[in-house]
Amino acid sequence: xxxxxxxxIELSSLLHWTIQPQLALHIPxxxxxxxxSLVTWILAIALIALCLNxxxxxxxxxxxxLMGVCAAFIFAAQMINFPIPGGTSGHLLGGxxxxxxxxxxxxxxxxxxxxxxxxxxFQDGGITVLGAxxxxxxxxxxxxxxxLYRTIRHALGRDSWRGIGIGTAVAAWTSVVIASILCAIxxxxxxxxxxxxxxxxxxxxxxxxxIGEALITLVTVSFVxxxxxxxxxxxxxxxxxxxxxxxxxx
Length: 250
Hints:
Elements: H1 6-18, H2 21-24, H3 34-58, H4 63-78, E1 81-84, E2 88-91, H5 95-122, H6 130-156, H7 161-189, H8 195-227
Antiparallel strand pairs: 1-2
C-alpha cells in the first residue's frame, strides 16, 4: 500500500476546511503555532477581564436577562445555515448584533459564552485555539462592529432608523470580513498556509457570507426597533420612554 505523505494529508485537510465557509472562521486544533495561540489567548483573557470589569461597574441588573436571551438567540441562529454560491453555506456570527443590543462590553461577553459552548459541546473550532476564535469573532468582531455602527449611526442620525439601519448593515458586513482577515493572518504567521492563499480563501468567501450576516442582523434589529426600541443600547431618544430605561447607566 502506498503511504501518503503527512504534509499531503495536512494540505488536503486545510483545503477542505477553507472551502467550507460555514466552518472556516472556527479554526481547528493544530492549525495555529504555539506562539500565535498564546498571543491570542492572552488577548482573549485580557479583553474578557476588561469586559467583566466594565459590565460589573456600569450595567444595571436588568441587562443580565437580556444578555441571556441574546446569547440564546445568537446560539440558535448560528445553527441555521444559509446557502451561498458554490454549493456551500454560511451562518450568522452575531457580534455586531450583540453589540447593537447590549453594547460592546456585555455583547462581547455574550459572544465569548456562545463560542465556548460551540467549541466544548459541538466541537465547532478547536479547544487549544479557542483564544484565537474568541478574539477574532467574539471580541474584535464585536468591538469593531459596534464602534463602526455607532460612528455611522451618529453621522446619519442617532435617533433615526436610517442611521441605525445603515450602521447595522455596514458594521455587520465589515465585522465578518475583518474576522476572516485576522484568521488568515494568524494562519500565515503560523506558517500553515501562505498569506496570499489564506486571504484569498478566507476573505473571498466571507465577503459573500458577510452579506447574509448583514441581512440577518438588519432584520433582527429592525424588529427590535419597531417593537421595543428601548432594548437597543443607547435607544433613540424620541421613541424611548426615558433615558433611565436604557441598559447601561449613563
